């Protein structure tokens, strides 16, 4: 049975730093490893359980995280009749620094970082006869996942920065600004890539690609955020990018209805009610190029439009996942091909055009006009290819085009970044 080690992050108002408490999730095998024993020295039998736990806990609050980024990026509207903040705070831009939409994904991501740090500490203290290659594989896995989780938090807080040094809860590092934090994350990825190249995959790996390929794909994303086109291209060379491959090839969070495993909470059935719904933003529907089959991610409501918080009645449901056990992409081939196009757009436009046309062909569209690949074209393709996967807000922000986000009602506004949580003192 898979073991998920739940690290609950507590925010302390007065002393102002993260304190981590550890429990074994209800329903899991209580004979599995405890965090104290792991940090004292991880054993060979414990290792796959710890890896499984980290992969499982990466899914915690994923639905909140994706919903938040998608709402502020106007991919879709999120309606929950029991909580008006989805159509209030997140659309007016008046953000609460102690609200669930910030603190729960923030805490969940740092919980996984803590688990990775415990694993690394346990590796240093182990008396198990792991080979040097095995140790490299473990370090590479842990630091790759740490980098992924830290990047997720940084994408939310942006110029407010994040803590990257949280290994010692009694002596936390300070907040690093956006550029510095990106460099730290890139350093983690590069160090992990060296380890993974030496050690290969630690077991288990449920992503769908090797940890090294996942690492290099993430590196390409980070490099794109930095505007480092040469690094984007070199990282993509070692990733799983495949121009002839399925657009959905990639690394995924996995879900299951078995036992006490977790379901995909990003799935809602068609014609969702006002109690819980994700409604595609009308501009996504109306701005699509004729024949673009990526528009199929927004499905016409056969039960009629849904009225949400004074917004234009919503006519299309978000329908990316067809069941509550469908996997959710962390990063996939379509994004990598578009990163390739972006990195080549200025210095090698022919290659950029080739990559854009690969994506358009998969979407049922004809090629672009020669010489027409520019920022507008790139952002259009990314919008429709990566709809509701948490990219549009970040993309418009990094290209300094957030003012293009639609204002739906009087009093609404655009969000640039999320605040540091109230009780996360500096």
Provide an overview of this structure:
There is one protein chain. By secondary structure, this protein is mainly alpha-helical. Helix content is 42%, strand content 10%. The protein has 14 helices and 10 strands. The chain has a two-stranded antiparallel ribbon. Strands 3-7 form a two-stranded antiparallel ribbon. A hairpin with a 6-residue loop joins strand 1 and strand 2. Helix 8 packs parallel to helix 11 and helix 9 runs antiparallel to helix 11. The N terminus is likely disordered.
Q: How would you state the average pLDDT, rounded?
A: 91
| Fraction of residues in H or I helices | 40-55%
Global structural class: mainly alpha
- Side by side, the strands of the main sheet go 1-2
Sheet having the most strands: 2 strands, antiparallel
Q: Span from first to last CA?
A: 40 Å
Radius of gyration: 21 Å
Q: How many strands?
A: 10
Secondary-structure element pattern, one letter each: EEHHHEHHHEEHHHEEHEEEHHHH
Number of helices: 14
Give unreliable regions as ranges.
1-33
Which word captures the global form? globular
Percentage of residues in DSSP E strands:
5-15%
Subcellular location: Cell outer membrane
Main location: membrane
InterPro entries: SusD_RagB_dom (IPR012944), TPR-like_helical_dom_sf (IPR011990)
Keywords: Cell outer membrane, Membrane, Signal
């Amino acid at each position: 049975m898979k073991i998920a080690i739940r690290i609950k992050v507590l925010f302390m108002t007065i002393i102002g730093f993260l304190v981590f408490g550890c429990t074994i999730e209800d329903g899991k095998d209580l004979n599995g490893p405890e965090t104290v024993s792991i940090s004292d020295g991880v054993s060979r039998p414990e290792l796959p359980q710890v890896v499984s736990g980290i992969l499982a806990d990466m899914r915690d609050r994923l639905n909140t995280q994706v919903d938040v980024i998608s709402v502020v990026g106007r991919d879709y509207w999120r309606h929950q009749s029991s909580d008006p903040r989805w159509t209030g705070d997140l659309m007016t831009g008046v953000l609460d620094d102690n609200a669930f939409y910030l603190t729960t994904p923030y805490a969940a991501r740092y919980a996984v970082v803590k688990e990775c740090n415990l694993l690394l500490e346990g590796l240093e203290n182990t008396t198990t006869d792991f080979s040097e290659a095995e140790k490299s594989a473990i370090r590479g896995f842990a630091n790759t996942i740490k980098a992924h989780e830290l990047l997720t938090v940084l994408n939310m807080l942006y110029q407010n920065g994040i803590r990257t040094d949280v290994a010692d809860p009694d002596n936390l590092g300070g907040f690093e600004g956006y550029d510095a934090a990106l460099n730290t994350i890139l350093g983690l990825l590069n160090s992990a890539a060296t380890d993974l190249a030496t050690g290969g995959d630690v077991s288990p790996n449920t992503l769908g690609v090797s940890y090294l390929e996942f690492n290099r794909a993430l590196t390409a994303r980070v490099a794109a955020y930095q505007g480092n086109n040469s690094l984007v291209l070199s990282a993509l060379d070692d990733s799983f990018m495949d121009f002839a491959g399925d657009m959905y090839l990639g690394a995924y969070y996995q879900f299951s209805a078995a036992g006490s495993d977790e379901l995909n909470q990003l799935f809602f059935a068609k014609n969702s009610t006002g109690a819980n719904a994700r409604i595609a933003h009308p501009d996504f529907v109306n701005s699509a190029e004729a024949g673009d089959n990526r528009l199929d991610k927004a499905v016409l409501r056969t039960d009629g439009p849904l009225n949400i918080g004074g917004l234009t009645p919503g006519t299309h449901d978000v329908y990316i996942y067809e069941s509550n056990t469908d996997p959710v992409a962390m990063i996939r081939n379509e994004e990598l091909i578009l990163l390739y196009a972006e990195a080549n757009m200025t210095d090698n436009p022919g290659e950029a055009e080739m990559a854009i046309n690969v994506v358009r062909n998969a979407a049922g569209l004809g090629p672009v006009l020669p010489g027409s690949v520019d920022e507008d074209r790139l952002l259009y393709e990314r919008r429709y290819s990566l709809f509701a996967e948490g990219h549009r807000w970040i993309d418009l922000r990094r290209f300094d085009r957030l003012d293009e986000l639609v204002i739906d009602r009087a009093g609404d506004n655009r969000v640039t970044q999320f605040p540091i949580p109230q009780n996360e003192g500096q």
